[in-house]
Amino acid sequence: MNRTRNQKKGVSKKTRRNSIHAHDHDKEKIKIQGEIKYEKQGWKVIHVYGDAYERGYAHGYLLKKEMAKIPRVLKFVVKHEIGVNNYKEYSSVCKKVKPIIKKHFAELYEELEGMVKGANNPKINIDTLIEWNSVLSMYSHFESNSNYENETDKRCSAFIATGDATRDGKIVMAHNTHSDFVSGFMQNIVQYMTPSRGTPFVMQCAPGFIASGTDWFICKNGMVGCECTIGDMKEKPEFGYPYYCRIRMAMQYGNSIDDYIQIMLDHNAGDYACSWMFGNLGTNEIALLELGKNNYSIQRTISGVYYGMNSAVDYKVRTLDTNDADIRDLSTSSGSRNSRLDYLLNTKYYGVLDKENAKIILADHYDSLLNKVQMGPRGICNHGEVEVCDNLEGECDFSKWETTYPYGCTDGKVGDSEMMEKLEFEGRFGSSCGREFDANEYIRDHGLYSAWSDVLTSVPRNDWVVLK
């Protein structure tokens, strides 16, 4: 799985068979450099390899059905999530990114061109895919338009630990995604990539993405990483090197934590402010890079834990780059999760952190404001789709107000060093707690979101599964 295309021993017979009878609509023969490995518990696992255009073509071809959803979902998210009613306005902003990618990330641009050809869909072109990959960058750019009181730019809970913090003294990493349920339920692709240049890696992604998007990846050279968005940014991003190009280059070409930090700092313009958590399985070192627009902070250790909850831990980054000055405010999602993660990681499970305890932490529903277990937007396993009673004095009358939003936890991923050294991890799709989501029932009970009926999908209760 992790050999290049010239190392025939590493390519399955099924893949070699697939490679001889694929062609594009111009009758030019193109090899499918990859295959669908399996589908399990909501995940779809694929492997692509080779040069940029070849692996892009394989991605588009193998995910043709999923790629076909992109134009409709993209326009819906731009309107209902980012809050831009005129799609041309959104598209015009993304056009400023296109020449940057084409000039400075030619390999990735070629990969996108391959995806377009492989998808073979008249509604999908290179501009569509750049607009799709740029979605997360555009939340900050159009922040004044954003719905749900800017909570939709707070997109995950995560941690990475090593040394005295873990049961075996080695690295443990965990992450869950918080997203609108439309785009979030498209991020069920587990893509193994063996590029002709650079290191092989695996990442969680959506169809059409050149980087993870959820930012969960494991590399053959021992580098691993995840991130949490830093929300409530004060300033609009500029147009430097797109964050998804930088992190993808780090995954493919970075060989150390120093490399990752250098690549992520290069031409950063705040287009997706994040708390990046990196680890090196070879040295057992972990790092936290909190990267705003104008400021950043770096912490590194071989014994301890770093976590993310959508607000910067570093005081300078938080106060100068964001409007989220107080991470101790338990009424906010970030404040509640900050309190809970600090307790679980630095007290309750410190010294015994492993992938099983990581699953428990990711599925945690404790509401720090109400001081009780309650599914809602303040839990580590975020649930914006359920009614939450904030009345500390007594019961709430939910009939008088709308408290829900189809947004929350859409997955869970955990990995320890033993698994990640083999490019494996455990994942649960749908939510970290295994919540079943019935889209039809939700729309029926929440008429405010009737416009979501054409794009919202149901997700059954899925189990944790080893992805390899």
- What's the level 1 CATH class of the domain at 8-324? Alpha Beta
User: Strand pairing plus helix content: what structural class?
Assistant: alpha+beta
Overall number of strands: 18
CATH hierarchy: architecture of the domain at 8-324: 4-Layer Sandwich
Cα-atom radius of gyration: 21 Å
* CATH T-level fold name of the domain at 8-324: Penicillin V Acylase, Chain A
Largest sheet: 9 strands, mixed
Overall geometric form: globular
**SS element count, helices:** 17
Side by side, the strands of the main sheet go 1-2-5-6-7-8-9-10-11
Share of helical residues: 25-40%
Portion in strands = 15-25%
Distance between the termini: 10 Å
Spans of 5+ residues with little confidence (pLDDT < 50)?
1-27, 397-402
Mean pLDDT: 90
Structure description:
This protein has a domain at 8-324: Penicillin V Acylase, Chain A (4-Layer Sandwich), CATH 3.60.60.30. It contains 17 helices and 18 strands. The relative contact order is 0.12. Residues 1-27 and 397-402 have low confidence and may be disordered. The chain has helices at 13-18, 52-62, 64-67, 70-80, 87-94, 98-104, 106-119, 126-133, 135-141, 181-184, 243-253, 257-265, 315-321, 333-348, 355-362, 417-420, 439-445, and strands at 34-40, 43-50, 156-162, 172-180, 189-195, 201-205, 216-219, 223-229, 274-280, 285-291, 296-301, 304-308, 366-367, 372-373, 407-409, 411-416, 425-429, 465-467. By secondary structure, the chain is of the alpha+beta class. The strands form three sheets. A nine-stranded mixed sheet has the order 1-2-5-6-7-8-9-10-11. Helix content is 30%, strand content 21%. Helix 2 (52-62) packs parallel to helix 7 (106-119) and helix 6 (98-104) crosses helix 7 (106-119).
